[in-house]
Design brief:
With 314 residues, the protein is α/β, with parallel strands linked by helices. It has 9 helices and 8 strands. The chain has one domain: 3-Layer(aba) Sandwich (Rossmann fold), CATH 3.40.50.1820. The chain has an 8-stranded mixed beta sheet, with helices on both faces. α8 (257-269) links the parallel β7 and β8. It is globular, with a radius of gyration of 18 Å.
């Protein structure tokens, strides 16, 4: 806790009020209820000018994927020369929790600050829907937007950032035309339990090494971990050469901190424009986006994330 200021410590305390000590091993329904109680406690009012509408996108298997479109109506959204810009936001939650409501205030505020239209995706969750249902849903939504001629900026936090990076690799043929960039916020990219940060921050508040092992197992099913599958783990891709400009936002006190460094090196070696914003995450924990209204550091990092998205879309 010595690296955490009083604001981050208050964030931890407020978060943990909504979880029993054994939340990571409790049943899925209880996990989702705890998560819902937590995000409702942190929820902020939406900017008045941001309107939203819920729709569905049909997946390749006929499944209807819920999406929420945000439109910052009072702002003149800057546009790519050829294609209107669309931010795609993929939420975190360990592939087990989260939905359109869990990140609603965050998405509305992001749309407001960036001035871009934004769509949030409620991809299917484990354990009811194991991998690859999650990435299949995300790809279906992105493909739908690309087919409409939109220029896409991929943004995600935690598990959603993992999915965003997988989408970027799978649709890298659109880089330079419609895939403008990816912004990954405290992502899981390596699926490696032996990195230095996994050891140093194995018992970090809000996300531990054991949590990561649990969430990966429940996502893919015990004993069924995909090996060298780039749609499951971004760093398993055979090539990174065609990825779009990439911005990584790790949290300092996080078992996943080193994932961003490993990914940045892989992209840099492949000639991809990449920036790992390590200093922006100093003193911050995994999940700190919810603390943007109560932590100066988290608030400044969120502002930088939004400025980065805006720059990618200009």
């Amino acid at each position: 806790m010595t690296l955490l200021d009083t604001q981050m410590q208050a964030f931890i305390a407020q978060t943990m009020q909504h979880y029993p000590a054994d939340a990571v091993v409790s049943n899925t329904a209880q996990q989702r209820q705890c998560y819902k109680n937590m995000y409702l406690a942190f929820a902020l009012p939406r900017p008045a000018n941001v309107k939203s509408v819920d729709k569905y996108v049909e997946g390749p298997d006929g499944h209807l994927i819920p999406v929420r479109h945000y439109d910052p109506q009072a702002k003149s959204s800057p546009e790519n020369l050829k294609h209107p810009v669309q931010v795609v936001y993929l939420h975190g939650g360990g592939f087990v929790v989260g939905d359109l409501d869990s990140h609603d205030d965050l998405c509305a505020q992001m749309a407001d600050l960036c001035g871009f239209k934004l769509v949030s995706v409620a991809y299917r969750l484990a354990p009811e829907h194991r991998y690859p249902c999650d990435i299949t849903d995300c790809l279906a939504v992105v493909d739908h937007l690309l087919e409409q001629g939109k220029a896409v900026i991929l943004v995600g936090d935690s598990a959603g950032a993992t999915l965003a990076a997988c989408v970027a690799n799978a649709r890298s043929s659109y880089t330079g035309t419609q895939l403008l960039g990816q912004v990954l916020i405290y992502p899981a990219l390596a699926n490696d339990a032996n990195t230095p940060s996994m050891q140093e921050h194995a018992h970090a508040p809000l996300l531990s090494k054991q949590d990561m092992i649990f969430y990966h197992g429940i996502r893919v099913g015990e004993g069924h971990a995909p090996i060298q599958d780039p749609l499951c783990c971004p760093l398993h891709a055979s090539s990174f050469a065609d990825l779009p400009p990439s911005h990584l936002f790790p949290a300092q006190i996080d078992p996943l901190f080193d994932d961003c460094g490993l990914y940045a090196k892989a992209l840099s070696r492949a000639g991809v424009e990449v920036e790992n914003h390590t200093q922006a995450g100093d003193g911050l924990l995994h999940g700190h986006l919810r603390a943007r209204h109560m932590s100066d550091k988290a608030g400044a990092n969120f502002q930088l994330i939004c400025k980065t998205i805006l720059a990618l879309g200009r």
